[in-house]
Amino acid sequence: MNQPAPQTVFAAPDAAISRHIAEKLAAIHYADLPDRVREVVRLFTLDTLGVIAGAAKAPGMAELLTALTAWESDGKATLLLNGARANPATAALANGAAAHSLDFDDQHDPARVHVFCVILPAVLAAIEAEDRPVSGEEMITALAVGVEVFCRLGLTCYNSLGKGWHPTTAVGSISAAAAASVIFRLDADGFLNAMGLAFVQLSGTTQFIADGALAKRVGPGFAARSGVLAAHLARGGITGPHRYLEGNAGLFTLYERGEVRPEILTEGLGESWQLLDLSMKPWPCCRCTHTAIQLALELNASGLRAGQVASAEIRMGAVNHRIVGADFNPDHPNPVVHAQFNAAYAFATALEAGEVSIASFTPARIRGAGAGIAMRCRTVIDEAIGSTEIAPAGVRVTLLDGTIRDVFSPVMRGSPEDPMSQEAVIAKFRSCLSWGFGAEGAGVDRLIDMIRSLETAPDCSDLIALFRTV
After folding, report:
1. pLDDT computed for residue 369 by the predictor
2. Is the domain of 268 the same as that of 303?
3. Are strands 393-399 and 377-381 parallel, antiparallel or unpaired?
4. What is the predicted pLDDT for the residue at 209?
5. 33 occurs within a structural domain
6. Assuming Cys at both sites, which of 5, 213, 334, 398 could form a disulfide with 208, CB separation 3.0 to 4.6 Å?
C-alpha cells in the first residue's frame, strides 16, 4: 500500500486550525450525536471499565497506587482499583494506567492510538471534580468529543509511532483536555486554552516498549492527568498557546516534522465520526501481534500442534516489526511487558494453548511451555506490506517433517471488518471483573445494566460507586 505523501505545515497568520477545532468541539451536544455513536461510546465504556478491573493484579499497579497515595490522604476523586481518594489529576493518572496495564484496551487501528484508556479516566476524574451532578448524557458527549478528536489526531499524525512517539500518550493529552472541557462546560476559548495547555505538557516515547519497562502502562495515565489538569487551569483563567497545532513550534512541525494530514482534523468534524472505526481487543497484548495470534489459533484449530513445528517466520510491516519484532527472551527482566510486545511469544502461546487470555501473560507462563516454540520463531519485515499498515500479517511454518504451512490475513480480529460480538464483549467484561476483583453475579449484572443505559443516569458518580462495590 502506498503511504500518504508528507505535507509540510507552515505557520501563517490565517492558519487557525487550532481555534477552528476548539469552536467545532465546543458546539457539540448530546442531541448532535448519532445513535450509533452513542452505542459505541457505551460499549467501549463497558469494555474499558472491565479492563480496569482486570488490572487489579497487574505488575506495577500496586506499586503505582502506593506511590501516588503516599503524597495524598484525601481528595475529590476515586482510584478505581482500591477506592482511595485523591485529587482528580492523580485519579486520572492512576485509572489511565490501570486501563492500559494489561494491554487489553481498545485501539483505533489506522490511527494507532488507544483512546478510552485516556479519555474515560479523564472524564471520570472531571466528573468527580465537579460540585454538581453530571448526567449520563453529558458523560457520553464528553467521551464522544474526546475520543473523536483523539482518533482524528492519530490519523492526522499518521507516522507518529514510526518516529518513536507513543501517540496514545502524546496526542492523548490534548484529546483528554477536550473531553474534560465538556464536563467543565467551557466555551470555545476555554477549549482552545485547555488543549493548548495540554500540548505544553505533551510527552510520550516508545523507548519504554524497547526496554520492556512498566512505564509503558503509565503513559496513558500521564495523558489523562495532563488533560484534566489543563482543562482545570483553563477554567481558572490560565491561557495556552493558541496555535499549538499549526505554529512553528506546534505539534505539526515540532513533533511531527511536517508529516501530517491536517485536513483529517477538520473535514466533517461533528458530522462524520472516526470513532466508529474503533477496534476492541480480544487478546491482552499489543495490537501489532493480533493477526499472528489469529493465524496461530486457526492453525491450532486445524490440528497443528506446537510439537510439530521446527521453525516459524512471522511477516509484518516495518512499523509493527519495530514494535513487536524482537527475538523472544525468556530471561527478560520485565517478562510481562516483553511478552506483550513480542510477536514470537504471542504466536507461540496461541499455537501451544489454543487460546490467549490474561493468564497467558504471567511470568510463570511466559517462561514456561510457550517459551520453547517462541525461541524457534523469528519475525521479519514483509516489504509487500505497507510500512505503517497494522492489520496484514503472514506466517510461514516449517514442520519437523519438512512440510510448510503458509498462512496470511489482511484483517485483524476485533476490527470493524471482523468485530467482536456483543456477547463476546460482555464475556470479556465478566472475565476481567472475575480475574481482577473476583466479582461475579448480581453486582456485575447491575454494573452492565447501568453502563448499557448510561444516558439515563442523573448522576454519573453513581457509576463509580457501583464499580467499587461489585
Report:
1. 58
2. no
3. unpaired
4. 85
5. yes
6. 213
Model confidence pLDDT, tens digit, residues 344-376: 999 999 999 999 999 999 998 998 855 788 999
The three cell numbers of residue 402 are 519438512
The cell numbers describing 43, all together, are 460499549
pLDDT at residue 398 tops 90: yes
Residues 351 and 294 in one domain: yes
Angle made by CA atoms 104, 206, 359, in degrees to the nearest 5: 30
Residues 225 and 337 grouped into a single domain: no
Q: What is the pLDDT of residue 368?
A: 80
pLDDT digits (tens, 9 = 90+) for 138-195: 999 999 999 999 999 999 999 998 899 999 999 999 999 999 999 999 999 999 999 9
Residue 370 has a pLDDT of: 59
d(CA 68, CA 79): 10
Mean pLDDT of the chain: 94
Q: Is the pLDDT of residue 120 over 60?
A: yes
Among 357, 384, 409, identify where a domain stops: 409
Nearest one of 229, 230, 228, 258 to 245, comparing CA atoms: 258
Q: Which residue range(s) make up the domain with 377?
A: 287-409
| SS3 of the chain | CCCCCCECCCCCCCCCHHHHHHHHHHCCCHHHCCHHHHHHHHHHHHHHHHHHHHHHHCCCHHHHHHHHHCCCCCCCEECCCCCCEECHHHHHHHHHHHHHCCCCCCEECCCCECCHHHHHHHHHHHHHHCCCCCCHHHHHHHHHHHHHHHHHHHHHCCCHHHHCCCHHHHHHHHHHHHHHHHHCCCCHHHHHHHHHHHHHCCCCCCHHHHCCCCHHHHHHHHHHHHHHHHHHHHHCCCCCCCCCCCCCCCHHHHHCCCECCCHHHHCCECCECHHHHCECCCCCCCHHHHHHHHHHHHHHHCCCCHHHEEEEEEEECHHHHHHHCCCCCCCCCCHHHHHHCCHHHHHHHHHHHCCCCHHHHCHHHHCCHHHHHHCCEEEEECCCCCCCCCCCEEEEEEECCCCEEEEEECCCCCCCCCCCCHHHHHHHHHHHHHHHHCCCCHHHHHHHHHHHCHHHCCCCHHHHHHHHHC
Instruction: Please state the domain count of the chain.
Output: 2
pLDDT attached to residue 65: 96
Hey, how many other C-beta atoms are within 10 angstroms of the C-beta on 5? 7
Q: Is the pTM of this model over 0.90?
A: yes
Q: Find where cell 530471561 sits.
A: 331
Over the Cα atoms of the chain, what is R_g?
A: 21
Please say whether the beta carbons of 140 and 455 come within 8 A: yes
340 and 387 together in one domain: yes
pLDDT of residue 162: 86
pLDDT value of residue 9: 47
Q: Is the pLDDT of residue 2 over 60?
A: no
